[in-house]
Amino acid sequence: MAAPHPTPLPTEIKLHTQSKRLEITFDDGARFELPCEYLRVYSPSAEVRGHGVGNEVLQVGKRHVAITALEPVGHYALKIVFDDGHDSGLYSWAYLYELGVKHDQYWQDYLDRLAAAGASRE
């Protein structure tokens, strides 16, 4: 009997261009609809995350960002191309799952950081 995957794997990925959401269904039955803006501001790229804790770059003005392309990377990740030109983050299946599970917490944290910086989603 095979050992279970440490991270659920996606069974279906759909881009909803009108609502600007990425729908991902995983093999454990979890299903998430992640807004493009959320995926953009939580990009795993060094450009957004910085090079270490405390070096993150707050992303502003991303309310209307859209995804223009999805490119599978091996059997472990998804490269997402955004219409603002950002395309350098690789979203592992584990990271996409984490973004789904922790959406409410992460989104509120982002809104709080925007407010603290006096910045806007627009």
From TrEMBL:
Protein name: DUF971 family protein
InterPro entries reported for this sequence: GBBH-like_N (IPR010376), GBBH-like_N_sf (IPR038492)
Organism the protein comes from: Pseudogulbenkiania subflava DSM 22618
Keywords associated with the record: Iron, Metal-binding
Keyword Metal-binding included in the entry's annotation: yes
Keyword Metal-binding annotated: yes
GO molecular-function term, one example from the UniProt record: metal ion binding
Domain Gamma-butyrobetaine hydroxylase-like N-terminal: 13-97
Upper classification of the organism: Bacteria, Pseudomonadati, Pseudomonadota, Betaproteobacteria, Neisseriales
